[in-house]
Amino acid sequence: MLSKFFFMVLTINILKDLLSFTFRRRKKEKYSKRMGQKYHLFEGVIPYHYKSKEEIRSWAVIRYCYDLPFEIIATIVKFLFYKDKINCIDAFSSWRTALEESLWNNINISCQNSLDGICNIESAKHSVYKRNGRHVRALTLNGNICIADDQLLLIQQLLPNLDRLYCSNSSISEDGFGTQADWRLWESLTQLHVDLSDWEDIDPIREFMRVFPFLPNLKILNLDQDCGVISPSITLEDIDKIHDYMPHLESIRLEVQPPVLTADDLVRIIDVTPAPSVRSVHFNVRNSTYGWLCYFAFKYPSLQVLEELTFEHNDTSDELASQSKLMLRMDSAVLKRLNTVKINVEENSRQLEPIIWKLFRFFDIPVRYIDYFAYSYINTAVTIRDVIKESFNSYSKTLETLYIKECTSYSRNWIITESMDHYPCLVDMYIDVRRSSVALDVLLDHCVSLKRLKVDSGLLSVGPDSFASAPTSTLTASNIHSLRMLIIGKLSISASILEYISFRCRRLEHMCLSKSTVSGDISENTGSLVIDMSYTHLQTLQLHQVLFTTSLNANIDSRTINLICISENLFEKSPYCDRQIDNESAQNGLLEIYKKTSWFYTVYNTFCRDEWSSEVWNLARNESEMAIKYFSSFKSSRIFSKNMTVPYTDVGYFTKKNWSDSLPNGYVMLQCGSLERHTITGKWFSNEHTWQKMFDSLH
């Protein structure tokens, strides 16, 4: 296996030479034709005009790749980008079949006109799909389309070997569903992902129960619905039928609410027929929560992922007693493989919650993933501390992912990290607890393997002994953290904290600030609030609706800063250089620095307490030069003038016209060691899918 892997890596690297050589070959072919020369790539003798060592090597590589077996070619093309596949088709006739099959492997239909064209039997597009549809393994239906049942039948006939079907945005119509389509044509399906959020008139689970008998090879079943139109119930008999129809299921996600389990149901649970292949289950369990937990334990002995267990104050004491007796009858090996749980706790249901954590500890379950959401109005600070101390800390040695979200009106600020033990395996953490504070230095010390940190709401702070308030010499190389992704939203943060992050987290690659306030001091000599992150080499920087100010309070007033300057490659720093960061760093070499910068102007609009909107413009070259000239001869007497115009606008009115009026306010300079791409907008923005892909790509 190892030799095959190295062979694959070698071949992929060779293809880089191959593609660059192909482009050079095309240029020289044109030259040869003009000179009256006949040129063939795969002749036995190297053409006269290929004499350099690099070109001879590339020619030999092509000869090598040209003779590869078909099975190896088919495997290699899976790793090529779409445009590279097109180029290789032109370069190798022997690769054409494998490449064409690979190009048809995944099809995405996101336009209604395109769908209608494919389903029109007289169109050229229909003929193309009829000829090549057998190669399609994955079909995605998304965008603003709606596929009727007769069209679905045509698609099934055109794509007989489909393996994976993804339908988003309710692209499958509920009108006449199942009346014409023949799901037996897709018995090869192993994955079915369907969004049914717009289905309102019929019960989608009941409709798909008629389809399930024709999908015997399905391994992943995902039927999503809007929470407002969730099917009222799914019975134990329904679940048994699903597994009878699809015995190979490994993951099942149904947006349904299982009913209250009766006393007879609890008796039957022990003798339920197991489904040993299932590893992931997602139901919206809101009734008889512990009874359903027992059912899942007996039904799915290989269960690893259990989602959407909601604790509500709706079980009677007798029901809880019956469920507790049943739990005591479970074997110690039950739930041993469980490592991921997603739990919701409703208001006034705290007394029900601790039982599940005690149960997990009793069975010594090595939980690696916890997604915890609670909603409460009372004494939240105390209870969340208890959850962390008594529950989450019990899995501190195994937890790899921890999501904590709590909505509360509890007004007292408290530090959430005070309750945390050391989590040596934690790589992904999300904290969204209102009116809480996260001590970043403590968090980094306790979570040494953390790669992604997302903090929404509250305050991000650093202790008095940290880099933010002490000389940099107190930090050593052993304190450098390997955090790779930081996402901050709806909180206040100081410029010194960002500088601390840059110094401490040298491997940080992706950073996003959304709906947040960044505060700091403006230099009287330069008029700049410098955020020195020049230890950081970012691939991605996103600032969405960020308010820069000289005050910790998120109020839009005369202390708001409207001009933002993004710069890079200002300093050549050793990875462990302990240079004292100060706010005068932009004073030296001012004009040279500004040549490498991008300037932005932001207008803010406040509409209620702690809430604002904004608009961002990229300054033109002449406007940037005007700002550079202004600050190159900056005088401290200009800043905070009594006659200065307040830098925000009337509600709903944004303009760039008077941007120069904000020059006396100073500017923000954000310095990065290097920066591949940056985005600054005035709108709150969240693209979870994109950031998840970036996180998944981290090594």
From TrEMBL:
Manganese recorded as keyword: no
Protein known as: F-box domain-containing protein
Signal peptide: 1-20
Naturally occurring in which organism (per UniProt): Phycomyces blakesleeanus (strain ATCC 8743b / DSM 1359 / FGSC 10004 / NBRC 33097 / NRRL 1555)
Domain of life: Eukaryota
Lineage, broadest ranks: Eukaryota, Fungi, Fungi incertae sedis, Mucoromycota, Mucoromycotina
PANTHER family, per the entry: F-BOX DOMAIN CONTAINING PROTEIN, EXPRESSED, IM:7136021-RELATED
Record keywords: Signal
Gene3D superfamilies: Ribonuclease Inhibitor
